[in-house]
Amino acid sequence: MKxxxxxxxxxxLLAIMTIIVLWKxxxxxxxxNVFVLRVIATAILLYCLIKGVKNRDILNPYIYFALVxxxxxxxxxxxxxxxxxxxxxxxxxxxxxxxxxxxxxxxxVMNKKQLIEKNELIIxxxxxxxxxxxxxxxxxxxxxxxxxxxxxxxxLTTGIRFFLGTVTSYCIFPAIAMAWKTKKTGFILGTYxxxxxxxxxxxxxxxxxxxxxxxxxAIRRYYPMNKKNSRKLYIAIGIMGLFFIFVAFPxxxxxxxxxxxxxxxxxxxIKDYYYNKNDYYAKSIDWNGLPALRFPYIYxxxxxxxxxxVLETQNxxxxxxxxxxxxISWLQLxxxxxxxxxxxxxxxxxxxxxxxxxxxxxxxxxxMIGSCFxxxxxxxxYNNYRKTYSAYHVAMYAVVSQAAIEMFFSNHFFxxxxxxxxxxxxxxxxxxxxxxxxx
Length: 439
Description:
Elements: H1 5-25, H2 32-54, H3 61-65, H4 67-73, H5 89-110, H6 113-124, H7 131-158, H8 165-168, H9 172-182, H10 185-199, H11 205-222, H12 227-248, H13 252-256, H14 263-274, H15 291-313, H16 325-330, H17 355-386, H18 391-405, H19 418-432
Helix pairs in contact: 1-2, 2-4, 2-5, 5-17, 7-9, 9-10, 9-11, 9-18, 11-18, 15-17, 17-18, 18-19
Protein name: Oligosaccharide repeat unit polymerase
Organism: Faecalicatena orotica
Keywords: Membrane, Transmembrane, Transmembrane helix
């Protein structure tokens, strides 16, 4: 795919501005070999940005993965002697070879001219469901929503926890995608009203992020995207990003302690955060930038210190057990390996990047095997999404997108494995109901 000069200049400018702002804010003090590795990581970041900006889908695997090299490029240990130590060249190199493995395979899988042309047609053409399709979509959306909320309803009415509740809860995502595919405003609003009602009882940040993603992805799939509509969508994504940076992070503790939630506590939490009152982290972090960016910065970068800590103190192999954890857990055998599924962080920030479990499984160079697999998997899921109007593929891509976005601080593919769970749910439901097979 050819890259226009305009796209290249914008991406290059964005990368340069990011590095300059961070250099002026926190400073870098690299040894010569680390400086070279930081430049290589910046090149990977720039490549992801160029490929991502060029893609007609703003939410695409390149943009998601760009957070991984970005988190490494902006890393500096001078922020805090409590949470940070200098990264060794071996840690930088481990990150770089895995990022390269992921990006190379992702590019090979995604760079197919026929799929790109088909996606262009889908984006430009408005999808219009028939009357029979709308009725079928509404019926199955309601059925899937009921299955997805069954565990919560059962717990509220009887106090009993459904043993497959975590699995069935992912049925809400194809339900949401089907609601959007009906293109009936009343039905869509009713679907979100149900979700809002459940959040008054049980709120989960990860579920909220996934629903935000599927909302944007579904709109992109089922509604024509001219320049005006695309601009509105970009503004919505920007507002969402600002919300997470300036509101979600400051209110992290408040959300976790929902019993104390009130308008007064909401306002107090914001004030305390921005004025450094009752902020445990502010006392141990030498931060020279905006207070609102302090916690997001640590969240973005502390994972690399934990990667290094695992390299130095937990350099033992699990020989594929992490990669097989989804299957082992579905077979209810994970209890036999509980001691092997433990990662010890360097500090109270227990984030590790997606690379850590791959290193535990296959070692330094072998970890690239897992990165190649993830690049292939994410690329295939995206390809299936962009060549069809299927609500199932919208749901699968949205859930996989959540895991892809969070690769800079965790490996939800093998740790929580919901990207594979949603595939099984959609496959089983399509086989169970013949009328739902092609929705």
